[in-house]
Amino acid sequence: MSRIVRVESLLKEEISLIIQKDFRSNLGLISITGIKISKDLANATVFYSHLGSESERKKSLEKLNKATSFIKKKLGKNIRLKRIPSLTFKLDHSLERGSNILDKLKSFE
Question: Taking the model in full, what pTM does it have?
Answer without folding.
Answer: 0.81
